[in-house]
Amino acid sequence: MTTIKLTESELQYISLFEALTQVEALDCVNDEENGRVIFIVKRGMAGRAIGSKGSNVKLLRKLIGRDVEVVEMGDTLEELISAALFPVKVLSVEIREDENGEKVAMVEVPPSQKGLAIGRGGRNVKKLRLLAKRYFGVNVVLK
Q1: Which of 72, 94, 122 is the last residue in one of the domains?
Q2: Which of 8, 30, 55, 129 would disulfide-bridge 51, Cβ 3.0–4.6 Å?
Q3: Same-domain check for residues 28 and 55
Q4: Rounded CA separation 15/17 (Å)
Q5: Same-domain status, 17 and 64
Q6: Any long-range contacts for 18-27 (C-beta under 8 Å, 24+ apart)?
Q7: 29 in any annotated domain
Q8: How many domains are contained in the chain?
Q9: What is the pLDDT of residues 82-119, one digit of tens each?
Q10: Whether 99 contacts 86, CB under 8 Å
Q11: Range of 30's domain?
């Protein structure tokens, strides 16, 4: 994994997130392009962080004034991709090198879930690319 640098606003978001949810945030990504803040938590902690019926996320969204998403960390690229796309079922992840020598992860999902995997306006694919690049230096393509 690469070294991650947090901005002052991301540190403030983490502090607010942890105070409200009582869950440790491993990382925070301020995705200004898509108007959201993505919190990364330990595996198995997303449900607690989200809260009953999404209560914690709703309150955070109101306090921050932006969409809030919670993703469980994965030890491998495949685990991170599966967690970031949940509830979509990831069938396979294949890592290749493109013509420029960069690593690209080809993610296969069931055809019936492809729209859900992509998200409105490609929102989920953008999240996937952001996290895969941040943690593993890999670009992501859905197939």
Answers
A1: 72
A2: 55
A3: yes
A4: 5
A5: yes
A6: 20/56, 20/59, 20/60, 20/63, 21/48, 21/49, 21/51, 21/56, 21/60, 22/48, 23/48, 23/49, 26/73, 27/73, 27/134
A7: yes
A8: 2
A9: 999 999 999 998 888 888 888 888 899 999 999 999 99
A10: no
A11: 8-72
Which residue would you say has higher pLDDT here, 2 or 1?
A: 2
Backbone angles phi, psi at 106, to 5 degrees: -95, 115
Q: Is residue 3 part of a domain?
A: no
CA dihedral (54, 39, 127, 81) positive or negative = negative
> Within this chain, do residues 103 and 118 fall inside the same structural domain, yes or no?
yes
87: DSSP letter = T
96 SS3 class: strand
The Cα 41–Cα 138 span in angstroms is 20
CATH number at residue 83: 3.30.300.20
Taking the chain, what is the end-to-end CA distance rounded to the nearest angstrom? 25
Alpha-carbon distances, residue 128 vs 10, 116, 120 (angstroms): 19, 13, 14
Q: Are residues 132 and 83 in the same domain?
A: yes
Q: What is the pLDDT of residue 30?
A: 93
User: Of the given ranges (1-5, 32-36, 99-103), which has the lowest mean pLDDT?
Assistant: 1-5
